[in-house]
Amino acid sequence: MMHKAKKNSYNAIPIGTRIRGKWHHHQYVVHKRLGMGAIGAVYLCSMNGRKVALKVSEKNTSITIEVNVLKALQKVQGNQLGPSLYDVDDWVAKDGRTYSFYVMEYIKGEPLDRFIRRNGTNWIGPFLLQLLNDLEGLHLAGWVFGDLKIDNLLIYPKPPRVRLIDVGGTTQQGRAIKEYTEFYDRGYWQLGSRKAEPSYDLFAVVMIFIHLFYPNRFEKQGESLPLLRRKLSAIRALEPYQTCFDKALRGVYKTSAEMKEDVIYIVARQHQTRSSMHKTLPFWKRTTPVEYISTSLITGSAYGIAYLLTL
Amino acid sequence: MEKGTLRQILLITDGCSNRGGDPVPVAALAYEQGITVNVIGIMEQHESEETSGLQEVENIAASGGGISQLVYPASLSQTVQMVTKQAMTQTIQGFVNKELEAILGKEESLESVDPEKRGEIMEVVEDMGETCKLEVLLLIDTSASMYHKLATVKEALIDLSISLNARVGENEFSMYQFPGKRSDIESIMKWSPNLDGMYDTFPKLASGGITPTGPALQEAIYQFGKQNLVRSMKRSDAQSEEEFL
Ligand SMILES: Nc1ncnc2c1ncn2[C@@H]1O[C@H](COP(=O)(O)OP(=O)(O)O)[C@@H](O)[C@H]1O
């Protein structure tokens, strides 16, 4: 009995299943499962030859709350914040149970950690700026992302661009953060409240980049600020951002724009020192394969920044 | 949900009651008086949900209209705040469903309205959850087996305080332990807007082998009643003062 119930439930929908909405009657064919979360499962589906992502859950209230957030975000002008929302409906499965689902833009992306591992840490600057730009839009519209973490970011490949997914924690400013992950939560580290304000997200931004270099995370132990500072200062790739990240951890930045300003300054200077260093070396010493890759990455990151600034 | 106040008892225990009456009907009594009973059962590392013998936990929460969850100590913090918040949403939703029935007729609930209307309703539910007043009475099992878990419980409660104090609405907490040193239940902290008051008084030591869950719940209901009585007296005091001025 238990086994059967499990098999038919929303988190193991067989490939090829047709999900037909009870209210709007659109039909989606399941291709594969993209992921599982606390709230539901996300499937890659097709609808009239178009690829879409479908999130389904037995918790209809959680689905409804996420849909409300996505709807509110669609109304915000400017950057695309979160995936586009296409449809919301209920599905009566073969087992007779009703599940709620919504259909959104399929973001064919790569996890941030894998992208950085493959392409190098020079991408940290561009992604940091992109993230701060998106957060700025979100904050100006009166929201806080909340559950910001590596798992909730995807890197869209061409051109490389961070996209935020999973708005389950996205909260109106001034309220209590709806959903969070301890490692990223300033409340857990006792470095601030769980009130939804821009600085809450900026703290998590720093934790994203710390997490990149401590894949197994680490736990609270004594005073948090000295601990996080120690961890940060041990990461060479983050060295240029030390002061900036420290400010974000302490909640000094009240808006993403303030933090962005510092980051733009840092990446600009970093680029300068790097290119001047290259010029002082004779050519044959400059073009080891490793150097070649890193120069092309600098071009990549410069491209990323240029791309950003045109937004 | 009179006057926009939600009342909850959060029972944290690691065993079954072994003294006094059955806690399950007592929980029903609480629910009948508008107090939801949520229960968190702490398992030992070698136990599983099936073997822990903590079935009572589920039964108490079921008859108390609340939520139950079995956890290992490591995930206590996240669970405590999740259970509290989910129970709030559940209570508000139950209340909203009743309203819906009144408007739309019997058998109508959130599931039977279309997704657009559901979205509007959930917005109201969320607003209420964020802004309502919340009263939580924490009931902590301090029988012998809890001894090495008390520090974790304290940490989880501080965390709960951080979560709830980020809400727009007001909070009131009070805390009791059972068994007490002299009686079945003893106060750790009087009603207060945060949990700071427990820092010094939170028990470090366990107090004996008995687990009088039933009598403790009974007493918790009584304390809720008393607190309301005191408040309504204060209110009428304030009113008469105003009239006097
Ligand atoms: N729009 C999307 N496009 C592509 N993949 C997605 C999309 N939304 C979610 N996913 C994948 O599904 C996983 C789980 O979805 P998520 O919304 O995070 O679930 P939960 O809120 O329950 O944690 C994500 O980690 C991601 O890999």
Can you walk through the features of this model?
The complex is a heterodimer of chains A (311) and B (245). Chain A is an alpha+beta fold and 311 residues long. Chain A folds into two domains: 2-105, Phosphorylase Kinase, domain 1; 110-309, Orthogonal Bundle (Transferase(Phosphotransferase), domain 1), CATH 1.10.510. Chain A is built from ten helices and ten strands. Chain A has helices at residues 2-8, 60-74, 112-119, 124-140, 198-213, 224-233, 242-249, 256-280, 283-286, 289-309; strands at residues 18-20, 27-36, 41-47, 50-57, 85-92, 98-105, 143-144, 153-156, 161-164, 171-172. In chain A, the strands form three sheets. A six-stranded antiparallel beta sheet of chain A has the order 1-2-3-4-6-5, with helices on one face. Chain A has a two-stranded antiparallel ribbon with strand order 7-10. A two-stranded antiparallel sheet of chain A has the order 8-9. In chain A, a hairpin with a 4-residue loop joins strand 8 and strand 9. Chain A is elongated. In chain A, 40% of the residues are buried. The model of chain A is unreliable at 1-8 and 277-311 (pLDDT under 50). In chain B, helix 1 packs parallel to helix 2 (55-63) and helix 3 (76-104) packs across helix 4 (115-131). Chain B has a single domain (5-244), classed as Rossmann fold. Chain B has helices at residues 23-32, 55-63, 76-104, 115-131, 150-164, 198-201, 213-244, and strands at 5-13, 35-42, 65-71, 133-141, 171-178, 186-192. Chain B is globular. Chain B has a six-stranded mixed beta sheet with strand order 3-2-1-4-5-6, with helices on both faces. Chain B is of the alpha/beta class and 245 residues long. Classes of the chains: A alpha+beta (311), B alpha/beta (245). Chain A binds chain B through residues 23, 60-61, 64-65, 67-68, 71, 88-90, 98, 100, 174-177, 182, 187-188, 193-196, and chain B through 77-78, 89, 93, 110-111, 114-116, 118-119, 122-123, 125-126, 130, 159, 162-168. The complex binds adenosine-5'-diphosphate (ADP). The site of adenosine-5'-diphosphate has 19 residues of chain A, from strand 2, strand 4 and strand 6.
